[in-house]
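Q: What would this chain look like folded?
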Amino acid sequence: MIARPRFSRQEWLFSLKSFFAAMLALYLSSRFGLPRPFWSMMTAYIVAHPLAGHVRSKSLYRLCGTVLGCAATVVLIPSLSGSPVLLSLALALWVGSCLYLSLMDRSARSYAFMLGGYSAALIGFPLVDAPAAMFDTAVARTEEIALGIVCASLVHSIVLPASLAPSLLGLIDRTLGDVRRWAGDLMSPGADDETGNRLAQDRRRIATDITQLRLLATHVPFDTGGLRWTRHAVGDLHDGLAALTPSLSALEDRLAALRDATGGVPDPVARVMAQGCACLDADAPPGALDGVRAAARAEGADRRNSSWVRALNIDVAAHVDELVAGWRWCNALRVDIAAGLAGHAPPPKRGEASRPVLHVDRGLALRSAFTVVLSTCIACAAWIFSGWRAGSSMAMAAAVFCSFFATMDDPVPGMHKFLVALLWSMPVSAFYILGVMPLAHDFGMLVLCIAPLFLVVGGYLARPASSLTALGMFFGVAGTLALHDIASADWVSFLEGNLALFAGALIAARVTAIVRSVSSEWSVQRIHRATWRDLSEMAARPKRALARDAFTGRMLDRIALLVPRTAGGAAYQGGEAAQLAMRELRMGASIGALQQHRHLLPEMPVRELLAALERAFLARATESPPRLDALLPQIDRLLALCLASTACEPAVSALVGLRRDLFPSAPSDLQP
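A: My prediction, written as structure tokens:
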């Protein structure tokens, strides 16, 4: 017996709103005399999302992508209508180019590029054999899709709109709580190795949450509530949390170094950290941080300690100072966001705008683009040489399938799951298009006929665990309704069209398995090599090094990408890949600080050190054996110079960081 679906109130609400928007789009398309009104219905479901802000942003970018794809069709078809082979190749190359741009963006805007690609395929391939109808068909498709977008945006924005605020604020507060717990445990007197092990998972989650916060923030301007007025504060808060992460990781590492060098954390340093921990509380007096700084300077100037211990003390104090100041900044921004949500005046912009900098893999993006071009060309070749009447649907399916799953390391399992759902949808599609539609003589009867299926499918679309299967079922039924002329549909045209869609999807899956699928370990290695290239450029180019916020954001995104790829992997048990990425993040911060304070140090030794770092990092990026032997004496000589002069102390933290991250097992005495 099949269990009845038990949907939550929010799932039913999402399904009802999506269905109402789709029926409104279907009704208006029919009233306006558009040739394929089911395109409008399908679009209303495609842009649907439980959060109204997501619907509005997806709607905008889908509309832009549709117009872009329509424009490409209008340009390509008249120019190449005399040669179906060249026209098919041009459309395939257009889809591949748009997919490459989409993968290189990784923001909400990427949706527009992807839509611009496969919208041209959806509009253009059916017109390869009938270019005379090009303009009318392109305009009609654009109007139908635009109408579905407008209806979905209106319904989800007006009917019980779900704001992004609860999800975003929950993510912010969880991240702030994790950061506060990490900082508090590090700076509290009872911090130990067991505490650090307990928080290992939380640290990796912080990187994931900060990246997720960056991605969610792109939808804030489209929110239906007061959250959109706080978009600057949300962006600044993301940057503040990102900046805290390397400081927290560095402080944890330096405390471990102090324990190795002295057998434990010295009492004066413990007192400095205890004062810093007290400053993290909201009710800490305004002048408490000044006391921490004074105590830190006194401990760093104590010459009774060895040179290495003094350097570690200075570095620990600097990171405590950074953490306290950064934590207060983040809390002030959280108060601004709360004030904006309460309806007060928009909070003032506290920082400079920063561009979202996320990790992109150009090689993998090119590989994905080549895959969609190859799949589409194979489908077109089979269509042209066989003379199959429904072959255009095969080319469309190949282009769409490769685009949908291009962000995965190995898209084939997802494609196979989608294909199974597509197969299950065929008898349902046959029932509707051949049995139900001829009997539905008015719009009300049509709505009653299709409501049971689409209301249930809409509930499953709201569930992340079942959304892919539900999407396959939806596309199978709605796509059949959109692509067929209901008035003239018969068994022959139905079977041809659905077999062509399935064949195109199968071609996409097979080509992807051969050309595009990669292992998680392969992706992990590429992420690390990209990091070493970034570090090499930071050592060679001062301007690149001073853009530390961009590097920090990109590294946190890489850690967020590494965590799911290395979970349970034999080669990276215990989160070793994420730990290595955190060490690389600290090295980037150290190089940026060294470039910032290089004017305080002798020019020639600093230049030689940076050149050696550039060569070493570049060797790691190209998988050549790095030569690090000469780096440790160079770092130690500069560190000794810094400790001898108070004017050079700002560079101590950078040199200590490089020494610890490049040579974690180096002796405690500085080499001459």
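The chain has 26 helices and no strands.
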